[in-house]
Design brief:
The chain is α/β, with parallel strands linked by helices and 180 residues long. Helix content is 44%, strand content 22%. It has a single domain (17-178), classed as Flavodoxin domain (Rossmann fold, 3-Layer(aba) Sandwich), CATH 3.40.50. The strands form two sheets. Strands 1, 2, 3, 4, 5 and 6 form a six-stranded mixed beta sheet that branches. A two-stranded antiparallel sheet has the order 7-8. The two termini are 28 Å apart. Bound molecules: flavin mononucleotide. Flavin mononucleotide binds next to helix 2, strand 3, strand 7 and helix 7.
Length: 180
């Protein structure tokens, strides 16, 4: 208890921002991106918490929220979408950033890939600041017939680019810490 109070007091004195990084992931690739974002935010001195989107029931304790979801058959993760819907009332009043984890090719490196329709809708509803599409991951370890077929057709691989993910996270830190 004492440690909690000390931590809270320290955050207030230092004006340390608390950020929630939530993710909707089926096979871990999006969770990995969220973990990397959380780590970069912490390197910048923010108090970042990384949790599965399904576990998010209250965002009121956070100064900012980053929410990401995997793309499957052109749709954003249902877990991420439901998290956005469930918490909309409070997300609307905080800075929010959305991301998608997707393409298993180099396309996310070559140009900005716009959000799918459901994510665009959430961007509008929540007044989200930005969206990024990061490359995804499908490998021989990914379960499912479709994933196996993709890998067999030579379309697998890990296309998550740590540098691009870290750059975006540092940009979020700068944006949040500028808003005193
Ligand atoms: C059956 C299947 C369908 C997919 N559909 C899409 C898609 O429509 N758009 C896309 O960008 N990526 C698609 N992907 C790639 C996944 O989004 C990518 O692998 C993602 O990083 C997986 O995240 P997760 O491991 O967190 O579930 C698909 C992958 C599989 C296996």
């Amino acid at each position: 208890m004492k440690a909690d109070i000390d931590h809270w007091q320290w955050r207030v004195v230092m004006n340390q921002k608390r950020v929630l990084v939530a993710y909707g992931s089926k096979h871990g690739a999006t969770a990995g991106i969220a973990a990397q974002i959380g780590q970069s935010l912490r390197e910048d001195g923010l108090d970042a918490v990384v949790v599965p989107a399904d576990d998010v029931d209250d965002v009121r304790g956070y100064d900012g929220v980053v929410l990401g979801g995997a793309l499957y058959a052109g749709h954003w993760s249902g877990k991420a979408k439901r998290c956005a819907e469930r918490n909309a009332e409070y997300l609307k009043h905080r800075p929010v950033w959305l991301f998608s984890s997707g393409p298993v090719d180099a396309s996310a490196e070559e140009h900005e890939i716009p959000p799918v329709a459901a994510v665009s809708r959430q961007m509008e509803l929540l007044g989200a600041r930005e969206h990024r599409t990061f490359g995804g991951r499908v490998t021989s370890g990914t379960p499912g017939i479709m994933a196996r077929a993709m890998v067999r057709a030579g379309k697998g691989g890990d296309f998550r680019n740590p540098e691009r993910i870290q750059d975006w996270a540092h940009h979020i830190s700068a944006d949040l810490t500028a808003a005193r």
